[in-house]
Amino acid sequence: MSPQTMASFQELMKELKVEAVKRPDLQLVQGVPLPSPSCETWDQLCSFQARPDDLLIATYPKAGTTWMQEIIDMIHNNANLEKCRRAPTYVRVPFIELVPPKPIPSGLTQVQEMPSPRTIKTHFPFQLVPKSFWEQKCKAVYVARNAKDVLVSYYYFIKMNHGLPTSGTWEEHFDAFLTGNVAWGSWFDHVKGWWEAKDKHQILYIFFEDLKEDLKREIKKVAEFLEKDLKEEVINKIALHTSFDMMKDNPMANYTTLPSFIFDQSVSPFMRKGSVGDWKNHFTVAQNETFDEVYALKMAGGPLKFRTEL
């Protein structure tokens, strides 16, 4: 993005009015609950025409999306910090199904106006991704995070993000998450759907917990998938600048460029903990037992294994 385009985007942000930001409802698309504005643009999303060199970053919400966006942008730019701070994450890697209040352009509009090669973000389950991505044989990186930590992180994110439908109290959110009655639907279906698709398409399936365990190892894995041959010092630099503490202090990654009436970071910071095992600070004994019963039923017999602590 050019400095002129970024300046124009910032001017549009200033025009956004508090009263324009109202929490949307959940509506169903092919049985998947989505924020209502995304549903209203479903026809345009379905007919989106991908380009062969498009790269898709896909995740269930709060599974390490921004982390992977930063990692990939740094890989593409050989860890050039100036280039990687040219604009906020949400501008560098547009969220294709996002429909913000006017006059902010939709994610779809942003993507369509981007020059190639484009890196695009989605939270869609596999079956809702525009088919042209697979027709054009695009690559995708999917990040999966253990459900217990996602449940907690998503709760805080919904509370602070006025662009999402509410999921209620902690107890209500817990139940809604387990039944898939939250935006982008069932975590269980999401992670399984992308896992089953990874051998049919060019999809790299990455685990959040592996990123936490050995970030440099996983960066190398992503770079290899993107056919980027990076020197060790570049890998080290990427690992340093995509660490949680560095990203938390980076205004181009921590979403502090959004006004508080959209992302109220006084309620909860966007970059909250980024850890493995925080669910232990929130689940009651009864909730943990309930969760484990549902998890065992929904994930029975499958090959997917998640770590809930390191």
Description:
With 310 residues, the protein is an alpha/beta fold. It has a single domain, classed as 3-Layer(aba) Sandwich (Rossmann fold), CATH 3.40.50. Helices cover 44% and strands 9% of the residues. A 4-stranded parallel beta sheet has the order 4-3-5-6, with helices on both faces. A two-stranded antiparallel sheet has the order 1-2. A hairpin with a 2-residue loop joins β1 and β2 (32-35). The longest helix has 14 residues, at 147-160. The mean pLDDT is 92.
Task: Sum this structure up briefly.
The chain has helices at residues 3-15, 36-40, 42-46, 65-76, 81-84, 89-92, 107-113, 132-135, 147-160, 170-179, 187-197, 208-213, 215-225, 232-241, 244-248, 285-298, and strands at 26-29, 32-35, 55-59, 119-122, 139-144, 202-207.
Structure keywords:
alpha/beta; two-stranded antiparallel sheet; 310 residues; 6 strands
Helix content: 40-55%
Structure class: alpha/beta
Strand order of the largest sheet: 4-3-5-6
Question: Which series of helices and strands comes N to C?
Answer: HEEHHEHHHHEHEHHHEHHHHH
* CATH superfamily heading: P-loop containing nucleotide triphosphate hydrolases
Helical stretch tally: 16
Oligomeric composition of the shown chains:
single chain
Mean pLDDT: 92
Supply the CATH class: Alpha Beta
Counted beta strands: 6
- Total domain units: 1
Fraction of residues in β-strands: 5-15%
Unreliable spans: none
What overall form do the CA principal axes indicate? globular
Could you tell me the radius of gyration in angstroms? 19 Å
Major beta sheet, specifics?
4 strands, parallel
CATH architecture title: 3-Layer(aba) Sandwich
Q: For the terminal residues, how far apart are their CA atoms?
A: 38 Å
Domain Sulfotransferase: 52-301
Keywords: Transferase
Family: Belongs to the sulfotransferase 1 family.
GO molecular function, one term: sulfotransferase activity
